[in-house]
Amino acid sequence: MTTAVDWQVRARGLVEKLTEAGVLDDPAWRDAVESVPRHVFVPTFYVQQPGGGWSATSAGSDGWLDAVYDDRPLVTALAKNAAGGRVSMSSSSQPALMLRMLAALDVRLGHRVLEIGTGTGYNAGLLAHRLGDGQVFSVDIGAGLVEAARVRLASLGYAPTLAAVHGAFGLPDQAPFDRIIATCSVPAVPWAWAEQLREGGLVLVDVKRSAHTGNLALLRRYPDRLEGRFLPKWATFMAIRDTDGAPPTLTGVTMQPEEGWRSSTQLDPQPWTAVVPWFLASSRLPQRLVFGYRGRSETGSEWATFRGDDGSWCMVRTQPDERGRREVCEGGPIGIWTQFERAHDQWDMFGRPGWDRLGLTVLPDGSHRVWLDEPDRACSWLITGGRNAAR
To answer: Cα(252)–Cα(257) distance, rounded to whole angstroms?
Structure first.
């Protein structure tokens, strides 16, 4: 049985860890983390095993409480996909990331805040503790997640407005908002959010067309646009879902090395080693791109693979040869690796800028333009055109 002393001691320990890490220096957020019990929102979490299966750890189990108050993300809901496997569907974000985002969003008393992605309800609990129930609104497409979050929040005396709706539409009947925070990634920022945001208000969202290809952007509402900069430290969230179920699996893309065209590269194929150039290349890549591995070797997987929803595919050897080069084979309507190499060359030419030098402008037609250093600088990349705007 978990006592108040058990969790409060651990919550204070988490506060100390976050303070030492430099992500928690606001007394009001310190009080929220110490006062809102995370374990109430995470009665069970799941850990993926090397073979692909999942193990569950639930309330009362050895290590459960310590894990909940550790500074790490926890997968809290699974669903079966079309292939019969279980995949993660919801999680409790890493506390350091949550607090870093809340600090960047500059949330203040009196603000009306819309959260996209209720999940467990923990973040809504922190917001409600800080701002009051009447200032906090949270939506999620998962009806079961929303109801569970409502019950957990109510058990602690919190009653923010929750709704089971598609996050891309926001919550227009409760607008306008001063702040919007999205705890899921989107391929493009829905203009509906801008329409529900007061002029001068802020939206913080993880902009990713595919896994690893993007980052958190803090955008201000102007009369004719959303505009701002990417946060300097990379982060990632689960993608926004269109249905209350497991994300769809990518099928029908067959990699045929004997029919592809071949080249070689000096670059590491794992996308998280070059997230900025992958993002800059995203407008020229398939709208949905899935990364994986194929084959086995003495050192691990033989090939890193990319599959696009348009039938494009690419295979890159994970290990370089004695000259430091890796074999590449790609096919389909778009040369995935060719486009990435071009973006990487351009990124090189501009001095390999990090996220701290990149900004984003979003227009009402749905177009997204990434710029270097300043919005009016000639150097920019169109990441998403109006016809590809999110929902």
So the answer is: 16
Map 127-157 to HEC letters.
Answer: HHHHHCHHHEEEECCCHHHHHHHHHHHHHCC
Residue 208 has pLDDT above 50, yes or no: yes
Catalytic center residues: 88
C-alpha–C-alpha distance, residues 44 and 227, integer Å: 39
Whether residue 60 lies inside any domain: the answer is yes
Q: Which pLDDT band, with edges at 50, 70 and 90, does 171 fall under?
A: very high
Centroid of chain to Cα 157: 29
In a domain, 79, yes or no: yes
In a domain, 323, yes or no: no
150: domain range?
4-165
CATH of the domain at 27: 3.40.50.150
Phi, psi of 78 (to 5 degrees): -120, 160
Total count of domains within the chain: 1
Q: Is the pTM of this model over 0.90?
A: yes
Does residue 189 lie in a domain region? no
Mean pLDDT of 174-199: 97
Closest CA to 360 of 287, 276, 242: 276
- pLDDT tens track for 221-278: 999 999 999 999 999 898 898 888 777 776 767 777 778 899 999 999 999 899 999 9
